[in-house]
Amino acid sequence: MNKPPIDFYFDFSSPYSYITSEWIEALAARHGRTVRWHAVLLGVTFQAAELKPPVAHPIKRDYVLRDFARSARFEGLPYTQPEVFPIPTQNAARVFWWLNENDPGRAVAWARACLRAYFARGVNLSDPEALKALAAEFGLEPDHAEAVWNEPAWKERLKRANESAVAAGMFGAPYVIVDGEPFWGNDRKAQIERWLSQGPF
Amino acid sequence: MNKPPIDFYFDFSSPYSYITSEWIEALAARHGRTVRWHAVLLGVTFQAAELKPPVAHPIKRDYVLRDFARSARFEGLPYTQPEVFPIPTQNAARVFWWLNENDPGRAVAWARACLRAYFARGVNLSDPEALKALAAEFGLEPDHAEAVWNEPAWKERLKRANESAVAAGMFGAPYVIVDGEPFWGNDRKAQIERWLSQGPF
After folding, report:
1. Rounded-to-integer distance, Cα A170 and Cα A175, Å
2. Is A90 part of any domain?
3. What CATH number should be reported for the domain holding residue A133?
4. Residue A186 sits at the chain B interface (C-beta within 8 Å)
5. Looking at the complex, does the CB of residue B58 fall below 8 Å from at least one CB of chain A?
6. pLDDT tens, position by position, B105-149
7. Which of B49, B63, B70 sits opposite A57 (nearest CB)?
8. How far is CA B173 from the centre of its chain?
């Protein structure tokens, strides 16, 4: 019997989501699991939980900017704090859901390409021209990508994803669900690993 | 040459501080370090950073209550969610600073006794009678403990500790500083361990 997939909710503007996106597939595979990726808007989940982004708080802001980069180095990943941060990510997310409809693997590849572009190369995913250029680099027809993110059907699909995330208890990113158990944050990696290897604890 | 001590800032009402308090001395000792404990009021640091306790947020509340207990189990520690939570902890903290004046080791023992009493046995540290009983159990004269927490000098000492914590960048608990590098949260254990064993990364 196949083990149930892991649900991985992320936002394209979340540094900790970027870090998690780089280890979650390998971790899942080591334990015979697959991963279902869910691109969502973190702002919607913040609003539901009456939260603000960590960089919107004095004192905490300085800490998290330091911790983003350090947590990436801890995982051996390149990281450059984007100058424009955080950014609205609905366009990248709508392209994700469009690709996901026919080929979830291709959607995952797009998610990784976007996260790496933003957090390692500073590509501003909220700038339509930059996102079109990234789409072209990825092998999509840029005008078609733009048509997708302006299409009501994909706006609606993202909206449903956001609602599902809130319904699943998401209030921060990344948010990972394994066998119904929620894990918030890149720093829950060790707990997720124990759950996958030994079951509930 | 001795390596500089690790600074460990905590609040008696913080579950993640309790968990960290149970591993930090052993971790430090393995790397030839000592630990300076700082009892502070998390509420003061929340205010400075314009934050509220995690349980004050809808959705996030449910998650953290689950995560407190799971994170304790992950470290093999007993944990029972206190019915009254969070609580004001200035009395326990003032006794900590009073003990610390003459015997930091005894202050650490008091901190551990309080954290274990609250998080493993549900002893409400904000109830003067319960705290006096705990003081007696610990070997203090209960009326003297009460006199200490009502004494302006120890109120002032705690105030200074809170101000130092904010000045050091604290906005949440536990907050650990190693060689000037700040680590927030029980979940930064692995990063602290790498820092201690390999130096800055």
Report:
1. 6
2. yes
3. 3.40.30.10
4. no
5. yes
6. 999 999 999 999 999 999 999 999 999 999 999 999 999 999 999
7. B49
8. 7
